[in-house]
Amino acid sequence: MRVLAAMSGGVDSAVAAARAVDAGHEVVGVHLALSATPGTLRTGSRGCCSKEDAGDARRAADVLGIPFYVWDFADRFKEDVIDDFVAAYAAGETPNPCLRCNEKIKFSALADRAVALGFDAVVTGHYARLDDGVLRRAVDADKDQSYVLAVLNAEQLSRAMFPVGDTPKPRIREEAAERGLAVANKPDSHDICFIPSGDTRAFLGAKIGIRPGAVVDADGQVLGEHEGVHGFTIGQRKGLGLPGPAADGKPRYVTGIDPDSGTVRVGSAEDLQVWTVDAERAIWTSGTAPAGPIECVAQVRAHGGTAPAIAEAVGTGLTVRLRAPLTGVARGQAVVLYRPDEQGDEVLGSGTISGTGGADSTAANSEAASATR
Questions:
Q1: Are the CB atoms for 84 and 95 separated by under 8 Å?
Q2: Terminus of the chain with fewer CB atoms < 10 Å: N or C?
Q3: What is the pLDDT of residue 369?
Q4: Nearest partner of 349 among 296, 306, 309, 301, judged by Cα
Q5: 73, 20, 46: which is closest to 179 by C-alpha?
Q6: From CA 312, how far away is CA 301, in angstroms rounded?
Q7: Beta-bridge partner residues of 305
Q8: Would the pLDDT of 105 be above 90?
Q9: pTM for the whole thing?
Q10: What residues pair up with 214 in beta bridges, in sequence order?
Q11: Is the dihedral of CA 290, 300, 261, 245 positive or negative?
């Protein structure tokens, strides 16, 4: 096949491209320029898509003996990822920009251009596996990225290749060194790539500005003031700007955010428990929504936050009833569903969380559970 290898300048994408070459594919490397000022997007292991990264990707392509290009996607990235991220926080949500980047940039904009140019598939260094079109977790659980890839539909998955998903990360680094790739020991990028400082609150504050509001308890008593709901997320414990813990001595957590009134509600750890999750923009990796309720394992964060559940398609969205409560579940996050078999690694679908229900939804949860038995 003729494949396009997305090369970020890191070790994973370099080895992925190398393995595609080894498999006999005709490989062309491409680095995505996602910033109009690329020199500002890397500080050590923070950030990505810098001039340094572009150079590292080009050198890796030279070692592999494949053609290499840099494609400017800065405007598309700003609109679909950065602006979306800012708007979501302004609306009191907690988005995952890596998930949106995969959906809108790497497997939409990039894949569409690749197909238009006659490529059969896009190769990336994501830690996930594809088995006859079925998306599965990576072998390396610590590096697994199936959660942020669960927004891909069946057509997009049919044009994707994840060559490193069957290998633990330490072995990928060893392989890179054996191949003479200079990125073998390059630090992994972390945090949000377009916020190299790591200070998300400051970044959002500069974009959104000051929008003062109140911090209140469950009874509506005002405990303090804040400069904008964008500085908070559900489950947050630190940085609340309060003089101390609750009257009972227990810590307070953010339990609710109302962007219209600017109110941030705080409460106890027990107040964070969620039993039902509603989501919009459901994507089913098989291409078809299930006809009725299905047993699954629901995951609400990239690493952790899982519980057995029953999910059901509702219009263009889905509803998930948890068999055990989860905490820190916020609007804007993704809920990803996995098959509840012995392996537990097959992705069934996903949706963007639009609402949650607490302890008062346990009765409905029990009824749904009975209906599926």
A1: yes
A2: C
A3: 42
A4: 296
A5: 20
A6: 20
A7: none
A8: yes
A9: 0.90
A10: 225
A11: positive
